[in-house]
Design goal:
Blueprint (H helix, E strand, L loop, with lengths): L12 H7 L7 E6 L4 E6 L13 E4 L2 E4 H14 L1
Antiparallel strand pairs: 1-2, 3-4
Length: 80
């Protein structure tokens, strides 16, 4: 693949399908200086409390994971 004058390249459709990438999906781009590699990952929002990306749900504009919701519920129950 060649880079165009704006620094873009096309990710092949087969690769997008394998990765489950849809049009307009947010992506993250990293550079690994040790391996001289560009890393492209789908953006997955992390929990506002612990940073976990597993099982997050949007709550009042913030992503929260199940474990932190459970911990918050237990904390509230103990204070009541």
């Amino acid at each position: 693949r060649k880079i165009d004058e704006l620094g873009r390249f096309v990710l092949p459709m087969e690769m997008r399908k394998m990765m489950g990438i849809e049009i307009k999906d947010p992506m993250e781009v990293y550079f690994d200086s040790e391996t001289q590699s560009i890393i492209l990952k789908q953006y997955k929002p992390g929990c506002v409390f612990c940073g976990s990306v597993d099982g997050t749900k949007l709550f009042k504009g913030h992503y929260v994971c199940k474990e932190c919701v459970k911990g918050a519920k237990e904390n509230i129950s103990m204070q009541a």
